[in-house]
Write a structure and sequence with these properties.
This protein is mainly alpha-helical. The chain has four helices and two strands; from the N terminus they run H-H-E-E-H-H. About 50% of the residues lie in helices and about 10% in strands.
Length: about 100
């Protein structure tokens, strides 16, 4: 992967664009794992916690497995009611992985 400066606002935006350029769920998760030092800052009432993109990908794949075990399958239509939080990102990525709509 090309080195991207994620310390600046422009560098972080460029990194997001790099990840968003994925053309399939597999490519998306591969891109998340390509940057072991990059990640997301999770802010909640308990404080701040840095989570790597690799951990985010692992959490999303685990959530996808649980959703699939619950009976969700490709092209199922689902809705998500969640706060704007880390869990929402995990669920969105899990839905992409499953191919749900």
């Amino acid at each position: 992967m090309n080195s991207i400066d994620t310390t600046s606002r422009d560098g972080a935006f460029a990194h997001i664009l790099h990840i968003a350029s994925a053309t399939s769920p597999k490519a998306l998760f591969d891109k998340l794992r390509e940057a072991p030092d990059a990640g997301v800052l999770v802010v909640d009432r308990a404080g701040c916690l840095f989570t790597s993109y690799a951990t985010l990908a692992d959490d999303a794949l685990a959530a996808a497995e649980r959703l699939q075990a619950a009976g969700l399958a490709r092209r199922d239509r689902i809705g998500v009611l969640a706060r704007n939080a880390y869990v929402r990102i995990v669920l969105d990525l899990a839905i992409i992985e499953l191919g749900c709509v």
